[in-house]
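Form P-L/3: holo structure prediction, ligand nicotinamide-adenine-dinucleotide.
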Amino acid sequence: MERLKDTTALITGAARGLGAQIAQRFAESGAFVFVNDLNIDAANDIAKKINGKALACDVADSSAVRAMFNEIAGTDRSLNILVNNAGISGMEGDDGARDRYLETMETDDSDSANHPPILDLSDKQWQKMLDVHMNGTFYCSREAVRLMTKPGSTNYRSSIINMGSIMGTFGRDGGTAYCSAKGGILAFTRSLAHELAPLNIRVNAIAPGFIDTDMVRPFEAIHPQLKAQTPLGRIGETDDIAWAAVYLASEEAKFVTGQTLSPNGGFYMSQ
Ligand SMILES: NC(=O)c1ccc[n+]([C@@H]2O[C@H](COP(=O)([O-])OP(=O)(O)OC[C@H]3O[C@@H](n4cnc5c(N)ncnc54)[C@H](O)[C@@H]3O)[C@@H](O)[C@H]2O)c1
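OUTPUT (holo model):
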């Protein structure tokens, strides 16, 4: 069944991981997909595989985002679906930060009480986290709404999907920046859903649990602990999120807006 037949989607951060799998399932479901990423070579590989088009751009850069949407506007396609997926853990290339995070997961609260991780969080790390997740989601959504509402546009099956996380409503030692950024995305989702409902543009979020991608692979040491805490007894697969995105973008979800869908194996039972 072509659940996204005749639609055009832009997925940010889609050169690998969750974004790449969402791109694959969207294409199989009938959508034409623009594959955004910082990494243009990997984005090109994905785009080639699914007959889409790669667009290089840093979503945290407002003018680069505008240029990317202008490029889409210059094609003969009308944008129906935006998936704001690009994201970072904040520990990329920083083994020290990763090790400190693992320590907070493996030790009891008293260790954290002696040296709260916030003391090691720099202005730069905090700002970068908000830039990519919150600013990126805002810049791309604003440009998408410009395209979706421009004269002549039908709003046919228009929808925005924002990638949150269970960390958006769940606190964790060492996670103040990431959790704040994801919490902000969930709040942004609800407000934008209100603004766009009169235009019949739906806005929803996905809040994944722990999913096996390059982002969480550095934390393999704690996978057994995470599995033990997950009622369904496993780490998630990229398809657990990709199918949620297909559903939210499809006509099956035409009465769904302002919601957070959280595939997490029962790790966290309420969003
Ligand atoms: N994997 C998980 O367990 C998990 C859980 C909850 C939420 N998430 C969220 O899902 C999203 C995807 O995560 P993933 O696990 O696939 O990560 P990933 O690291 O495997 O992929 C992220 C992609 O985003 C791209 N990217 C990063 N910064 C960018 C920028 N400024 N502009 C454009 N592209 C950029 C990267 O190049 C990469 O291709 C993220 O928002 C992440 O926070 C992941």
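COMMENT: The first helix runs from residue 17 to 28.
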